[in-house]
Amino acid sequence: SRLLGWRAPLRAAAPALADAEQALAAGDHATAARALAAALRAGLGLRVPGAGALAAEELAARARGRPAIDDAAALLAVLDRTRFASASTSPQLPSLDRVRAVLRAIGTTRGSA
Questions:
Q1: Residue 77 CB neighbours (<10 A)
Q2: Using CB atoms within 10 A as the burial measure, which of 6, 43, 85, 107 is most buried?
């Protein structure tokens, strides 16, 4: 399989990243968490077939020594925990910069799972 340009996952994730940025600016952490997860899944879809339907744990199992895929799976697990946390808990979302960095790394990852 050929090497993707590092920008491809960022392009795939751009609409969801814009939604996340808007939600964060409005203080809507639940919408931001969903949008960040959608951004990661859009980028992962370029490297992991069916990424949109896989749980974070399944994605981690398919990482096969590819740190960017493992990092994305870990962020998805954090986002899942945030979505299902009680409303009284203050959400600890990954930053947009962290998500963008993982998406760039996915773009330089070889092979599909």
A1: 15
A2: 43
Other beta carbons within 10 angstroms of residue 66's beta carbon come to: 19
DSSP code of residue 94 = P
* Residue closest to 70 by CA, chosen among 84, 51, 57, 85: 57
Report the distance separating Cα 66 and Cα 109, nearest Å.
Answer: 7
Helix pair angle (29-44, 8-25), 10° resolution: 180
What pLDDT shows up at residue 2? 47
Q: What is the pTM of this model?
A: 0.88
